[in-house]
Design goal:
11 helices
Length: 184
């Protein structure tokens, strides 16, 4: 890592955002674990791909907060630091609105999402696809891999070819699992 990147990370204050994300600890995931861990995994995926944008990393830590804890005090986000208005805006971009279907939500990110929103949604889906390896509901796996291919691949293609390649590999391995499961 270069010195500039180290300095940018050194001066980034993630702890308040991580503390807010602890509100997700009780929110279970279909694959096991809880939503708090998913937030941290998503941030780790972004860092794995070399993203050190402070707004993006802060938003990744709380990206599901407003969706999964609807009564969360939004002012806590807005009052956190000098970047919190941008973080909040990005979280809203990747938050599914109550009136949106899943295809409408993903279509909105594809058509109108910022580069940050597309990168965050791609990292989020990588985390979800990895967790899908622990899901036993065959129909859900099938639907989710199809949705990833049809609606998330185009988002990843617009922002990061490396993430797209990983998503393609994850979809392929989940489909291989389904094929093996039904061969027996």
């Amino acid at each position: 890592m270069d010195v500039d990147a180290m300095l940018r990370l050194k001066n980034m204050h993630l702890a308040p955002y991580i503390q807010m994300a602890t509100a997700l600890i009780g929110k279970r995931r279909r694959s096991g674990g809880n939503m708090f861990r998913h937030q941290i995994d998503t941030m780790g995926i972004l860092m794995d791909y070399g993203y050190i944008d402070s707004v993006l990393l802060k938003a990744s830590v709380i990206h599901d907060l407003l969706e999964d804890v609807p009564d969360f005090d939004r002012d806590l986000i807005l009052e956190t630091d000098e970047e919190s208005p941008e973080v909040y805006k990005l979280v809203l971009e990747v938050t599914r609105r109550p009136i949106e279907t899943k295809p409408e939500f993903l279509g909105r990110i594809l058509e109108y999402g910022s580069q940050r929103a597309r990168v965050l949604k791609s990292a989020d889906r990588i985390s979800n696809m990895i967790s899908l390896g622990y899901v036993t509901d065959v129909e859900f796996i099938r639907r989710y891999t199809d949705e990833t291919e049809q609606q998330v691949f185009p988002i990843a293609a617009l922002c990061d070819e490396r993430m797209l390649a990983e998503l393609k590999e994850l979809v392929a391995t989940r489909r291989e699992y389904l094929a093996r499961r039904f061969e027996i």
